Amino acid sequence: MADLSSVFVRYDLKKEAGEKTVAVSKDELLQKVMTAVVDGDEDNIVDIVNQALKVHDPLVVIREGLVKAMNEVSRLWDEGIYYLPQTIISSDAMMAGLDVCEKKMGHSMEKKGIVITHTAEGDIHDLGQQIVNALLRANGFEVIDLGKDVPVDDVINAIKQYKPAMVTGTALMTTTMTAFNKIANRLKREGIELPFVCGGGAVSLEYVTSFDLGIWGKEAQQAPPMATDAVSGLSWEHMRDKYNG
Amino acid sequence: MAKYTAMAYKSADEMIFGTAKYPVKYGRNFEVGGGFVYPELVPHPRPGSEETKKSLMREYERMVNDALERAVTLGFPGLQIELEHIWQMTKNPDWGGDIAGQTRKLQEDWYKKYGIKSAIRATIADNRKPDQENIRNCRSLELALKTFESSAANGADNLSMESVGGKEISDYAIVRQDIRGVLFGIGVLGSRDMEFMWKKIVEIANKYKVTPGGDTNCAQANVAMFMAGGLLDKSVPHTFAAVTRAVGAARTLTAYEMGAKGPTKDCGYENPIIKAITGIPVAQEGKTCACAHADLQGNLIASVCDLWSNEAVEYHDMFGGTTPAVFTEILGYDVALMNTAIAMGKAKDLQALLINSDKYRDPHSFVVAPENAYQVGKAIVDNNTDYYSRAKAAAIKAAQLILADEKMLLSNFEREVLQKVLRDLESFPASEKDFIEQCTSIYKKVIPGFNLANYGL
User: Fold this and answer.
1) Does CATH place domain A114-244 in 3.40.50.280?
2) Closest chain A C-alpha to B76 CA, distance in angstroms
3) Nearest-by-CA chain A residue for B296
4) Which of A202, A219, B182, B288 has the maximal Cβ count within 10 Å?
């Protein structure tokens, strides 16, 4: 058999990630909450959070347990130790835990801000949008999910109704992404200015930055920091400079 | 419906590019799988051209003409054009039909003038939304069926589709590394939906005396593969995507059990498994689809192809001409090499080169390499008692093959993922009925809009 070892290089093996570490709390119950989120233990998170709530205030469980754990998950993903599924499963566990805490409080946690998400008219490929939704919710944003194959009018009406800090659009095909330009033009005509983050499939930097309001989202994990910037009042022009410059 | 219970080939070694057990003839003197590989060019219109029927037809007229002209200019014997519908072509059945008619007229003109063999595949868009509507009785289905009819009536030789049944489950499962959901969404629900869709497609094809072509697991296994991405991506584990491909093969097989004749759809990376089972000709895309996406089996995937495709290339100018012309040239020379190998008795040598280029580049390429594809196919036919059993058997076989070959190097993480997948698969219920009940209970809670009635359950 010929030596084929130089035909290709498995760079993935050379870059193999190190071991994961779990965020640490001095409190045993909060540690359990954090571990459950980091491990994405959706089966047991409700019981674990309920145990913690017997001792701690819901706000403490949220801030010192759930949120800190998600920060750890974000770090693990950023460093390439976690893959997307681990992050999504952790997000699911975090949201399940948050739901328990909010029921105990009797009201929802105040959200950082509202983001409207949608997939373009004519496009049923909304997996990218679903990932964006999960990441935004896990990071404390209220997501108005308009779903897939959404007409331009519906997006405009939702923006008027909910007054979000940011709107996102995803599309797989170049021939459906053309709805984004129409949405941006309608908003401008009606005097509405907000960051409109577009991404997915064949959606390109060149296209999205060809119209006002447009900011190109290269990857789903950019959504939480972008939403944070939008909520803090950064204009679409500044966001474009920051993320697409 | 007759299910496959035996392999079309005695061994993987019998499989070769250009030749299928059951060749298909249609179009203008065009035969697929009859000892010759042809290019299949897939042009894609520029954004904005879809605004009106007139502008879109003009775009297609230019694209098809450019491809045919380049094929004749360089002496290529034949060319299939795929009209892979953008949403607007299926939403407006007359658009899809008229573009098929226009393409046929162009192909006939070039055939009369130069004798270039040609054919048209019309791939109708599946815009049904399983989590939002009754996909067995909705406007999107009605329009799709009308567009199949208008395409067949006006000139399409081959009717194909990329059906989306079960996608609401598989999308949820793929990003959660949930093999149960993959098996349910693709292996069970996807197959049931294909049974529903392909009965209708085959009826339309027979009515118009055209060929029912094939389907692909683009909406599911390709989602997993594209998200797994390249060697440095960390979205979906590559081993998980490779097992998902095997499940996708069990699903895609349903089209051919329902009467589709091939050639299969180009983006079905599960097609080597399908060819091993059915013996029908297959279309594939590899390095030539870099215009649309990257993959890790650019050469290998050509090893048993009968049509060689580019997936989709948007219409633009390049130094060497427009993109349809340029990609026709690339495809045409690739198949010329394959056909030369066939003519010189060197086809198995070239096939070995194609396979060995990529077999160990990634678990996905490993699973669709002919010898492994054959074994996955064998697991499917040996367990073809119901959709669940055959999909589970395919997944287990794929996982076992990857784990057993020392040359298929895996990171610790990828290996652990695969071992967990195998443990999970072996823990699932024995019967399809129990599995469906288990999955219904789980996914009803987490996927709003999931409706068993969409799948006749």
Assistant:
1) yes
2) 30
3) A8
4) B182
Q: Is the model's pLDDT at B290 over the cut of 70?
A: yes
The pLDDT tens digits for B165-180 are 999 999 999 999 999 9
Beta pairing class for B30-34 and B19-26: antiparallel
pLDDT computed for residue B376 by the predictor: 98
What residues form DSSP beta bridges with B300? Answer: none
Q: Which value, in Å, is the radius of gyration of the alpha carbons in chain B?
A: 21
> Residue A206 — φ and ψ, nearest 5°?
-60, -45
- B119: which strand partners? B80
Domain ranges of chain A: 21-105, 114-244
Chains A, B: CB pairs < 8 Å: 99
Contacts of B87 in chain A (CB under 8 A): 122-123, 173, 175-176
pLDDT at A16 > cutoff 70: no
A99-103: list long-range contacts, CB under 8 Å, 24+ apart: A100/A46, A100/A49, A100/A50, A100/A53, A101/A49, A101/A53, A101/A58, A101/A59, A101/A61, A101/A62, A101/A66, A102/A58
Q: Where are the beta strands (DSSP E) in B357-423?
A: none
**Which residue do the tokens 């119209």 mark?**
A211
pLDDT band at B26 (very low <50, low <70, confident <90, very high): very high
Determine whether the interchain pair A83/B175 forms a contact, defined as Cβ–Cβ distance below 8 Å: no
Name B406's Cβ contacts closer than 8 Å, sequence gap at least 6: none
Question: Which tens digit of pLDDT belongs to each residue from A74-130?
Answer: 888 888 888 999 999 999 999 999 999 999 999 998 999 999 999 999 999 899 999
Domains and CATH numbers, chain B: 12-455 (3.20.20)
Asked if the domains A21-105 and A114-244 are classified in one and the same CATH topology, the answer is no
CATH class assigned to A21-105: mainly alpha
Return the pLDDT at B101: 98
Residue that the structure tokens 């045993």 belong to: A28
What is the rounded distance in angstroms from the CA atom of residue B401 to the CA atom of residue B394?
11
pLDDT digits (tens, 9 = 90+) for B231-265: 988 889 999 999 999 999 999 999 999 999 999 99
Cα–Cα distance for residue pair B395/B179, rounded to 1 Å: 9
Contact by Cβ (8 Å): B180, B173: yes
β-strand partners of B307:
B38, B283
